[in-house]
Amino acid sequence: MTKFTLILAFFSLTILLSAQNPADLAKSPAVQETQDVVSEMVEYPEDVLRETVSGMLAKQGKSLGTINSDGSIYVVASATTARPSNMTGFINSRNVAYSIAELTAKMNLLRMAGEQITSGRGFTMLEDIIEGEDPDASHKASILEKAARVVDQSLDKALSYLGVSDEEIAKMNQSKKQAVYEQDFNQTVKSLVAGMVKGCATVMIAEGDAGNDDYQIAVCMKYSPEYQSLASIIKNNTDFQTPVGKVKNSMEKIQNMPEDKLIGKLGAQVTFNSIGEMIVFGFGQQEVRTSSSRQSAAFSRAYSQARLQAVNNIKNFAAEDLVANESFTNIEKLREYDDGDQAYFSRQKWEQAVKAKESTLNLATHEVRQWKGKHPVSGQDIAGFVVAWSPSNAEQANQLKDQFQKGDPAKDSLKNADKRKQTKKSKTTVTGEEDDL
To answer: In this structure, are strands 320-337 and 179-197 parallel, antiparallel, or unpaired?
Structure first.
């Protein structure tokens, strides 16, 4: 390029820039397209729960994920439902997601006491640059190598005859290329956590639908020495004195709580009753499928299932023997061939498994409330049940058990029973007086 051409190009560029105002350039579609990119950060229920709990604990001089001065520990975990909120089976999937979140929280709690970590990693590199052909190698090629080449060529011809394209054949022969550079990396990390968790109860739950079939449940669980003592009393059915705290009307609060508030109650919750005793509430919920007939039977079954879940949640509070395994594998491979081709492979494998050993516990609970409502997001019918355990109620249950064991009820005779007749429709009757309740 001549000097005159360079000068002319410079002046042309100057005129072009002076003709366009920088402000106008900033408003051009090409520039605006890059400026209007907005990265939306979705706030999930777990984020909201962590922020809420952290703020509340900070006022008490406590924090998440640490052993606080009073021995309490707060952990947060979450899980996502496998079933979206706008499909049947969502309520059951919601119960499963809560269970996964609860088990994960307990696993995190056990980790604070120590975990067994096994890990290993390494890499290999190879650089092999060859120019030209070794004359000695070509003379010393064995008959076996020559035969292998003939077989390869014959195989390629056979594949081509069968209709396999040359491109596909080339891909099959990709492994035969000479790699001039290789890099391999591998890493393995394994974690093992095992132990008995006693006295870990739910204190707060956050849940919501983030859209795109993404419904998350987050749970904050609390462990404390007082909770552990209470759990031991429940597990061993002992007469030890339970911790006495502030008198609360927790029973009346649950009994009078609106259904839309009860929907957010899952797991087990510890509080105090009207005489200052520690009381454990167990919450259970079950989806009620819509039926064209016998809908009342569907509700009855759902109530029974919800009650069983509620009792089991108190049992899990008393003791749960967990074994948690977690593993992570990271592999990366790179190949560069002498013809300029590259091959890349990457694999990240993560696996987590938490299992609770099967156990049996004699548990005396009493019914607090049976309720039904609709989930605010899915609109599906829910049958709910609330049970409770308290020291005074457990003592009454033990006395009742003794009475049952001492009793000798008379045996009824069915010799003259009439032949069964089909039932007829009748009105519902209620027997009993209000004073007897």
So the answer is: antiparallel
Per-residue CA distances from 254 to 66, 123, 269 (Å)? 30, 59, 11
Element (H, E) at 96: helix 90-111
Looking at residue 175, the DSSP 8-state letter turns out to be: G
3-state class (DSSP) for residue 219: strand
DSSP string computed for 5-32: HHHHHHHHHHHHHHHS-HHHHHTSHHHH
Q: What is the 3-state secondary structure (H, E, C) of 176-241?
A: HCCEEEEEEEEEEEEEEEEEEECCEEEEEEEEEECCCCCEEEEEEEEECHHHHHHHHHHHHCCCCC
pTM: 0.74
Residue with tokens 């290993």: 120
Residue type, 312: N
Specify whether the CB–CB gap between 103 and 356 falls below 8 A: yes
If you compute the radius of gyration of the chain from its CA atoms, what whole number of angstroms results? Answer: 35
Q: How far apart are CA 131 and CA 93, in angstroms?
A: 62
31-56 pLDDT, tens digit each: 444 444 444 556 788 999 999 999 99
Contact 282, 365 (CB under 8 A): yes
What letter represents residue 192's amino acid? L
Q: pLDDT-derived band of residue 381, with 50, 70 and 90 as boundaries?
A: very high
Residue given tokens 């509700």 in the structure block: 299
User: How far apart (Å, rounded) are the C-alpha atoms in residues 221 and 201?
Assistant: 5
Report DSSP state, residue 319: -
* Per-residue DSSP letter, 109: H
Place of tokens 């000068």: 7
Phi-psi map region of 282: left, alpha, beta (phi>0 left; psi -120 to 50 alpha): beta
* CA pair distance 310, 260, nearest whole angstrom: 18
d(CA 170, CA 345): 19
> What's the longest Cα–Cα distance across the chain?
127
Alpha carbons 320 and 304: distance in angstroms, whole number? 23
The pair phi, psi for residue 137, each rounded to 5°, is: -65, -40
Give the C-alpha separation, 391 to 378, whole Å: 38
Q: Which pLDDT tens digit goes with each residue over 386-430?
A: 999 988 887 777 777 777 777 555 555 445 555 656 545 545 544
CB count within 10 Å of CB 279 equals 25
Q: Are 365 and 387 in contact (CB under 8 A)?
A: yes
Rounded-to-integer distance, Cα 64 and Cα 69, Å: 12
Find tokens 């190879």 and name the residue: 126
